[in-house]
Specification:
This protein starts with 5 loop residues before the first strand and ends in a 16-residue tail after the last strand. By secondary structure, the chain is an alpha+beta fold. The protein contains 9 helices and 18 strands. The chain is globular, with a radius of gyration of 21 Å. It is 25% helix and 27% strand.
Length: 383
């Protein structure tokens, strides 16, 4: 089945429930983190057919950078709100299909070591030299179902090793080990999240970020357990799934191998000198960054997200009404209103992310001015 055909129906900011009460200054700070990356990408040579940023978005990004510079990086809520209202128009999405779903992700914190030992024996691998990108990393969700990476061999490109093959030693003796962690289940979920903070026994830390994957589609092992009657759907949370896996490591291994996708990492340096990164090296903002499907939304686009039943994100009884910035992607993030909210680093962020699976609506703030269609699914869309 092809991507749904969508249309954009204009609204006004006055009609946008929750808009007036939002923290526009925080959203502006997040927007300014991706604005330079959007501008840089417009001048970069693309070799993989990824669309260039629209001129309208580029203009808004340049204005944001200038406004931030003039105000020395400190913009008031009123000024930030005025920026968004003057440079964007809100549009509600209209399409046939299931309602939008919001999930959450975070940066887990794990204990680790530079050297293998009886305690730390699970390797975290760097990107192999023979791994080849077949599509731009930003298009992983938009091009779901296609092989995204391959292995370069003397005979040509071949499928890369699966998770099971890698776990059974396919990459041993290549010097790819960045460090070691205690538990393969913890590594699995760090790969699902796409980043991690590693704390060594001497108290020092290092931040890891996504560096590529083996090219296989992501398979939800939680969905696999539910569909096969191994776990009741009403009890499924991230923590419940982790507990189930850790209760039986052999059982866990077999289930994790159902997800053939495998993520490689690179180091960003100590936590104090780095930030959690989204696509295009954008520094993520907890509570303001969202992963989207780039078949429908440009990276850097502001999106006002409404989820009345999502109350745990900020302990609000009125639900989630917040301006987010499209700054990341994910292999499982597919659809016009499919979003993954970034909650930050550590245990509390993980608890909130793990509880998040709620219906949500996107009000997309499209920049004023000429815009190119994002995909063939929008060819007949308005505006």
């Amino acid at each position: 089945m092809g991507a749904p055909r969508i249309s954009f129906e204009p609204e006004t900011f006055a009609e946008l429930e929750g808009w007036a009460g939002d923290d526009h200054a925080a959203a502006f700070v997040a927007f300014c983190k991706s604005a330079p990356r959007v501008i840089e990408r417009a001048t970069a040579t693309s070799t993989n057919s990824r669309p260039q940023p629209s001129e309208a978005l580029l203009k808004a990004c340049r204005r944001a950078c200038e406004l931030s510079r003039v105000n020395q990086g400190s913009v008031s809520g009123d000024v930030a709100r005025q920026f968004f209202e003057e440079n964007f128009t809100p549009y509600r999405l209209s399409y046939e299909g299931a309602p939008g779903i919001l999930t959450g992700y975070y940066e887990p914190e794990l204990s680790g070591a530079r050297r293998r030992s009886d305690k730390f024996f699970v390797p975290v691998y760097a990107r192999p030299d023979d791994l080849v990108n077949l599509i731009d990393e930003a298009e992983r969700g938009a091009r779901a179902g296609e092989r995204t990476h391959a292995r370069r061999t003397a005979e040509g490109l071949k499928p890369y090793f699966t998770r099971a093959e890698i776990d059974q030693g396919a990459l041993e003796a290549q010097g790819l080990e960045l460090l070691y962690v205690e538990d393969p289940i913890d590594l699995f979920f760090m790969q699902v999240q796409g980043s991690g903070l590693i704390r060594f026994e001497d108290g020092s830390t290092v931040r890891l970020t996504y560096a590529g994957k083996n090219g296989f589609d992501y398979t939800s092992i939680g969905r696999f357990l539910i569909d096969n009657g191994l776990f009741p759907s009403e009890d499924m949370t991230l923590q419940a799934l982790i507990d189930w896996l850790k209760a039986d490591p052999i059982r866990a291994r077999d289930v994790m191998w159902k997800n053939e996708s495998y993520v490689f990492f690179k180091e960003l340096g100590p936590v104090s000198e780095s930030a959690t990164l989204g696509v295009d090296g954008i520094a993520l903002s907890p509570g303001r960054s969202i992963a989207v499907d780039t078949a429908f939304h440009e990276i850097g686009t502001p999106i006002f997200v409404r989820a009345p039943r999502l109350t745990h994100a900020d302990d609000s009884s009125t639900g989630f009404n917040r301006l987010m910035i499209a700054q990341d992607v994910g292999s499982a993030i597919k659809g016009p209103e499919r979003g993954d909210l970034f909650f930050g680093t550590g245990l509390q962020a993980g608890q909130r992310a793990g509880q998040t699976k709620h219906e949500g609506r996107f009000i997309v703030l499209l920049p004023n001015g000429p815009r190119a269609a994002r995909s063939t699914s929008e060819t007949n869309a308005t505006p």
